[in-house]
């Protein structure tokens, strides 16, 4: 992977992305982002979770589309395939997932505005780095031949495995509540799928997916989002594991936090 593309604006944004990744990794050691079970009203104010998630992820769609479609070569085979992978991920993350959130009665405002602001920054940066890269091909590697390159093929396989784990895990959590009592507020222990092995299989799936993405794009833009994601989700996975063990006396003892059989 090359560090400099020769485009001053792009390289500057890329550098900012790495700096922010360091900030997230250090911050994640001290506190969890205030959303979900770790929601807090101590900082700022909270939004409806459906709205909060949608706003946070929206730049990944809009900013990506602007820079991809206004580039010089958006409709060649390789840029189109890379864009399709992007649309697959953010069609789920930015549109389906927010709409599918099941809200707990009485907790209509549980998504902290600080998380939205940080998320907008990350997804805008992420959308620009990849939309511009795919369409402008600053690295001069996205010819049609890239689609048969081993790095792309292996990376795609890894990405799809991670994405499948992510989607399956989210579906299990989404359907946890008793169908006969959809307004139930209590948390329950999830079972099946990746939950047989770890407490946070969705986080593991996200990390696997972005590892595959970094490989299939063979770009530092992919590395940036992998580092930011890891900085947020790895500490959160350990905090989630502790939370489950403290809340449920019968929590499966052989279940790890994030990596099956390891940690």
Provide an overview of this structure.
The protein is an all-alpha fold and 263 residues long. It has one domain (8-247). Helix content is 60%, strand content 2%. It contains seven helices and two strands, in the order αβααβαααα. It has helices at 8-27, 49-69, 77-100, 113-136, 150-174, 201-217, 220-247, and strands spanning 46-47, 111-112. A two-stranded antiparallel sheet has the order 1-2. It is globular, with a radius of gyration of 19 Å. It starts with 7 loop residues before the first helix and ends in a 16-residue tail after the last helix. 39% of the residues are buried. The mean pLDDT is 88.
Let me know the largest β-sheet: 2 strands, antiparallel
Q: Roughly what percent helix?
A: 55-70%
Number of strands: 2
Categorize the overall geometry: globular
Unreliable residue runs: none
Order of helices and strands: HEHHEHHHH
Strand content: under 5%
SS-derived structural category:
mainly alpha
Q: Indicate the radius of gyration in whole angstroms.
A: 19 Å
**Amino-to-carboxy terminus distance:** 30 Å
Q: Helical element count?
A: 7
Number of domains: 1
Strand sequence of the main sheet, in spatial order? 1-2
Calculate the mean pLDDT score and round it: 88
